[in-house]
Amino acid sequence: MTAEPRIHRGPEGALPRDLEPRLLRAFVAVSEELHFTRAAARMYVAQQALSRDVRRLERELGAELFVRTTRQVTPTAEGERLLPYARRVLEAQDDLAAAFARGTGPGGAARPLLVDLNSPGLICGRILERARELAPDCELMARFESGLTGAAAEILAGRLDVSFGRYAGLEPALRSRLAQQPVRYEPMAVLLPLGHPLAELDAVPLGALAGESVYAGAGNPRTLEWTDLAHRLFEGRGIEVAAPAPLAVGPEEFGRIMAKNRNPVLVAVDFPAMPQSILRPLIDPVPLSPVSLVWRKGLVHPGVDALRAAAAELSAAEGWLHRPAGGWVPATDALIMMSLD
Question: Would I find Cell division among this entry's keywords (predicted)?
Answer without folding.
Answer: no
